[in-house]
Amino acid sequence: MTISACVWPSPPQNLLLPANAVHVWCADLDLSEIRLQHLRQTVSVDENNRADRFYFDRHRKRFIAAHGILREILGRYLEVKPEWLEYSYGSRGKPAIAGMDSDINFNLSHKNNFALCAVTRNRLIGIDIEFLRPVREVESLAENNFCPQEFEVIRSLPSGKKEEAFFNAWTRKEAYLKATGEGLAGLGSVEVSLVPGEPAAVLRIEGAVQTARRWSMRHLLPAQGYVAALAVEGRDWNLSCFKVDCA
Questions:
Q1: Which of 20, 75, 82, 165 could serve as a FRET partner for 192 with CA atoms 20 to 30 Å apart?
Q2: Smallest Cα–Cα separation from 36: which of 11, 10, 66?
Q3: Which CATH number is 203's domain given?
């Protein structure tokens, strides 16, 4: 199942997150200065400091926009002001809601001027977005970073499909690794489907098919020229996609 940009409606006024629901939000990060200044007041000191480390102004602004919008989304579910949210962080930097009794899990990914935020309850979740672009020595990159089986698939594809397959694999692997909190060091530990047009799936984890069956994936197309992947623990869930109002 592929979710394309044409099916990302505005969220309902009465926003609910049942136990079997997964929500994915898409946001354009190129905002007005007024909107951006409002978001800057809602993020933490640490998030502001991290934004200020970027060399280019557009990157600073997009970082603030992504993290400010994430806080607004989480604030809607938790019925608190965005600036009241506090995070705790795993050993590899994965954030979680801290300071309140909440079963909400979330993950954020942003690339260029687009961000995706995935939200659910009581299950691990990860998301990743990439911009489709030319990749030099794509086979060499796949051989050095992917499983041998994935490398062989990419090598067998026609030249016009290799880069799309590479980004399919990259986003799916990273979505899974972000869900588990393992980080990119585990790229070779998870094998995923990657052939363009085939369903997104986790095929093996550390070589084990049975472990992989605990996970499900979706292929997302949030905007023209972008590809994304959603990894969710379990299979008993329903997906809804929403577009963030930039006003």
A1: 20
A2: 66
A3: 3.90.470
pLDDT, tens digit (0-9, with 9 covering 90-100), for 52-87: 999 999 999 999 999 999 999 999 999 999 999 999
DSSP state of 200: P
Task: Please identify every stretch of the chain with a pLDDT value under 50, giving residue numbers as ranges.
Answer: none
| Chain CA centroid to CA 90, Å | 17
What is the number of structural domains in the chain? 2
Number of H helices, E strands in the chain: 7, 12
What domain range is 88 assigned to? 10-14+18-128+236-243
206 by Cβ neighbours in 10 Å (0-12 / 13-18 / 19+) ranks as: exposed
- At residue 241, the pLDDT reads 95
Residue 119 lies in a domain: yes
Same domain, yes or no: 38 and 61: yes
- Asked if 62 contacts 30 with a C-beta cutoff of 8 angstroms, the reply is yes
Q: How far is CA 124 from the centre of its chain?
A: 12
* Beta strand ranges found along the chain (DSSP E): 2-4, 21-28, 86-89, 95-98, 104-111, 114-121, 125-131, 190-192, 202-205, 215-221, 226-233, 238-243
Strand order in the sheet with 21-28: 104-111, 114-121, 21-28, 238-243
Whether residue 160 sits in one domain with residue 115: no
Q: Please give the structure tokens belonging to residue 155.
A: 């090598």
